[in-house]
Amino acid sequence: MRQFDTNLLFKALSFAANKHRHQVRKGSEPIPYINHPIALADLLARTGNVSDPEIIAAALLHDTVEDTCTTAEELEAEFGPVISQLVAELTDDKLPKEERKRLQFEHASSLSPRARIVKIADKICNLRDIVEDPPAGWLLERKQQYFDWAKSVVDKIRGTNVELENAFDEAFANRPKN
Ligand code: ZN
Fold this sequence. Notes:
Elements: H1 3-19, E1 24-26, E2 30-32, H2 35-46, H3 53-61, H4 64-67, H5 72-89, H6 97-107, H7 113-132, H8 140-155, H9 162-172
Antiparallel strand pairs: 1-2
Helix pairs in contact: 1-3, 2-3, 2-7, 3-5, 3-7, 7-8, 7-9
Bound molecules: zinc ion.
């Protein structure tokens, strides 16, 4: 990887770590939120064989606008229009949760190929988290509903990265049953 790309990736990682610094995911113990974007980047590189640094940078940044005070303008100033546009594709509007989920499903097929790759990785990581260390208070039905919704989204964007789609199917095979 070129020096330029390495600089971009560490800049994105450092930016995201700073923005998410007060956030945790609540499983059996609080987990720093930044572990999630890092897991996406790792999955993209090592399972998806993704070497496009803009995709990996967008994965590191994918929740900054949705979940922190970061603005699209700030991302564009720091990382340029390509990465900020990719993150924008991956950002849900600030609406009630069920409405967001419905819109993600509805908009999935209009995602660009690069955004699709990050979206699939996001869903894989979320399914794995639910199996390995479920969010506090999630009962069986909620877990199953999340799995089914994630699959409905991924099914609309297949044909993008076969390794990641296989990894999704493997994660989905662990859909909680009891
Ligand atoms: Zn995410």
